[in-house]
Amino acid sequence: MALADHDRIPLTFGPSPLHPLTRLTDHLGGARIWAKREDCNSGLAFGGNKVRKLEYLAADAVASGCDTLVSIGGVQSNHTRAVAAVAAYLGLNCQLVQESWVDWPDSVYDKVGNVQLSRLLGATSRFVGAGFGIGIKESYQQVLTEVDLRGGKPYAIPAGASDHPLGGLGFARWAVELLEQERAAGVRFDTIVVASGTGSTQAGMLAGFAALGERRRVIGVDITAKPAETRAAVERIARRTAVLLDTEFTDEVILDERYHGGTYGIPDEETLSAMRLAARTEAMITDPVYEGKSMAALIDLVATGEIARADTVLFAHLGGQPAINGYSAVI
Ligand code: PLP
């Protein structure tokens, strides 16, 4: 099946903005750097990569006749906020499980940012103590059962919308969109740098490029500090998504394990200084959990020449700014 044959409910403004980061490029003095901005891709509650992924899951949810979207993530999960936004937009109920993935001292960490927005969007959040992980959790099964017992019809969306059969399609479409934007702008990206967590963003890109017959270097930046699991997820989802597009993904996944800062959700000094540099050269806001870390990777790879000076590199900005409110202790 071609990508265009998969049902999709448009939830974004259209192609996400693509633009050069001229001051950052000049500052680093290496490869030319551009950004493609999922952080401003949609009018739904600050958008982000999850809104793009959910375009395909939303179509499936509506077709299933469900009345409640159920999902799971950390306390400051951008994904659960996006599910809450999509539920509100589609007129569905939303039940979220928020796990304590991050041990962070800021006293408002579990009150502001993404959880606050989910509340405003009408979702119900259940807080549970559990570490980072994308497996199927008991708490999540329990919420699904409870919706069933109340006579509702739940639609289950796993963490990051990743371990879902349709989870990779959104970013396969991103690859198609990028090629059209490249043609229009007269530019070609040799290398793409993208944060990798639950995996379906990088995996979708890889499957999308495979379906297009395009060979690009997509450098995933592990932000989980559990890179073996991230790599396995990206491989699995890329293969599965490629099959949905009548193609195969057989390449090796590139995952850089040097920039997660030691712990999921906790920024190290490199992350914080990368966030400051992006903000002070481009007024581009990144968060301490995801894009602060992939920005730290990009800066280092360009500054050290691991991404060659002759290259044109794309920073895939996936969103995530609302979580910043929970990090006032360091930002
Ligand atoms: N950037 C942001 C802002 C995110 O919310 C996520 C989600 O986990 C990622 C990057 C990583 O994307 P993925 O989980 O698809 O690997």
What does this structure look like?
With 331 residues, the protein is of the alpha/beta class. Helix content is 39%, strand content 16%. The chain has ten helices and ten strands. Strands 1-2-10-7-8-9 form a six-stranded mixed sheet, sandwiched between helices. α8 (227-244) links the parallel β8 and β9 (254-256). The longest helix is centred in the last third of the chain and has 18 residues, at 227-244. The chain is globular. The mean pLDDT is 96. The structure holds pyridoxal-5'-phosphate. The site of pyridoxal-5'-phosphate has 18 residues, from α3, β7 and α7.
Short description:
The protein is α/β, with parallel strands linked by helices. Helix content is 39%, strand content 16%.
**Net shape:** globular
Number of helices: 10
DSSP strand count? 10
In terms of per-residue confidence, which ranges show pLDDT below 50 for 5 or more consecutive residues?
Answer: none
Provide the list of bound ligands, each named once: pyridoxal-5'-phosphate
Beta percentage is: 15-25%
Name its key features.
10 helices; six-stranded mixed β-sheet; alpha/beta; binds pyridoxal-5'-phosphate; 10 strands; 331 residues
Topology:
Layout: E1 18-20, H1 22-28, E2 32-37, H2 49-64, E3 68-74, H3 78-90, E4 93-99, H4 114-120, E5 124-128, H5 138-149, E6 154-157, H6 169-185, E7 191-196, H7 200-212, E8 217-222, H8 227-244, E9 254-256, H9 269-282, H10 291-303, E10 312-317
Parallel strand pairs: 2-10, 3-4, 3-6, 4-5, 7-8, 7-10, 8-9
Antiparallel strand pairs: 1-2
Helix pairs in contact: 1-9, 2-3, 2-6, 3-4, 6-7, 7-8, 9-10
The structure holds pyridoxal-5'-phosphate.
Pyridoxal-5'-phosphate binds at residues 48-49, 78-79, 160, 162, 195-201, 290-291, 318-320.
